[in-house]
Write a structure and sequence with these properties.
The chain contains nine helices and five strands. Strand 4 (149-154), helix 8 and strand 5 (167-170) form a beta-alpha-beta unit. It is of the alpha/beta class. It is globular and about 50 Å long. Helix 4 runs parallel beside helix 9. It starts with a helix and ends with a helix. It has two domains: 1-31, no CATH class; 32-206, Rossmann fold.
Length: 224
């Protein structure tokens, strides 16, 4: 039985169910592996500094999370005066997805994009509650074999994705708890992107200040 089935059975109406659901999410958030989150954030910042590309992918609800995360990384930092991350969601090109799915196979819709776009050193973030979606696993396997650095966002027991990704952030739940896992994955995207947006803005502002100070010093020396 999934946790949501149990919460539904224990609740007398939607109001009580809402309170139990919120409490369950709070417990999952309290158990977040913050060290893993810190490692992933550093990987993304290193990618930005090296001008690497970050590819994000997933199916269903995880596809929308991939789009959302890529948007926040690719646009958010500029609103704070920083440099954006080269982030691409592999779930957004409908023509490519349907052509590859129809002509080659649905399990290769992400691999075929990586074959075209990925360079060694790029980052691939794979989002899957079960950790067992074939097209997600094929993409991670391809990236691992071709110089990419792979990160899994998983739930349940982590599935195969947790085993083959180079690093992961895992949300441990009973099998079938899709909605709570997807809730936390979306929160993770907001959490990481909001921090990196402010980090890059601060770093770029310090760099600009250092350049201005250096230029002022050079001007002062030339005026002597």
């Amino acid at each position: 039985m999934s946790t949501l089935d149990r919460l539904f059975g224990e609740s007398n109406g939607l109001a009580e169910y809402a309170g139990r659901y919120a409490l369950y999410l709070g417990n999952l958030l309290a158990d977040l592996d913050c060290e893993a989150i810190g490692r992933v954030g550093q990987v993304l910042e290193d990618a930005r500094r090296a001008n690497r590309t970050i590819f994000i992918l997933g199916n269903g609800g995880s596809a929308s999370t991939a789009s959302h995360f890529a948007n926040d990384l690719g646009l958010g930092p500029r609103h704070k005066g920083g440099k954006a991350y080269r982030a691409i969601s592999l779930t957004d090109n409908v023509a490519f997805l349907t052509a590859a799915g129809n002509d080659i196979g649905y399990d290769l819709i992400f691999v075929e994009q990586l074959k075209t776009l990925m360079q060694p050193g790029d980052i691939v973030i794979a989002i899957s509650a079960s950790g067992n979606s074939p097209n997600v696993l094929r993409a991670v396997e391809y990236a691992n074999k071709n110089g990419g650095f792979t990160i899994g966002l998983t739930g349940f027991d982590g599935g195969t994705l947790r085993k083959i990704a180079r690093d992961s952030i895992h949300i441990a739940t009973p099998h079938g708890d899709y909605a709570p896992v997807e809730d936390i994955h979306l929160i993770l995207g907001h959490l990481v992107a909001s921090y990196l947006t402010r980090l890059t803005a601060g770093a770029d502002q310090k760099r600009t200040s250092a350049i201005i100070e250096s230029q002022d010093a050079d001007s002062a020396l030339q005026a002597r």
